[in-house]
Here is the input.
Amino acid sequence: MAAARPKSARGGNPPEHARFKKGQSGNPAGRPPKNRDIRKQVEAELDQMVMISEGGKRVRLTKREIIAKKLVNDAAMGDPKSLANLLKLIAGPSQPEYPVVAVDPADLARFAKRYLSQEQLLGNDKSDAEVPAARHGTK
Here is the structure.
C-alpha cells in the first residue's frame, strides 16, 4: 500500500494553516450590491464614446452628442416632432420645480401662536443659548 500523504499535501485542498477557521467567512463584507439606479445606468450609457462617420471622416463622439446632433438635424429638416422637442429643451421648464405660494400674515400669526411658546414669540427664549462646556465633559 502506498503511504498516506499528509492532509496539507492532498490535491485540491489548501494547506491546513491557510484554510478558513471554523465560523469565519472568506468574504465577511459580502458581495457588493449591484447598481440598480436606472438614471445612473442611462447616464453611463449616454457618456460612452462611439466612432461614427461624419462627412467622410471617422469621429469619436458620446452617445449624448449623437442624440443631440440627430435631434437638431431632424428639426432642421422639418420634422415637427423633433422641432417641438428641440424648442422644449431650449426653453427649459415652463413651471418652477416647486410652486410658489403666498402666505397670509394672519395664517402665519396663527401658526406661530399655536406652535411657539410665549418666550419664543417675545424673543426671550434661552433654549438656543450656549450650553456651558462643563456639561459636555470638556474643560
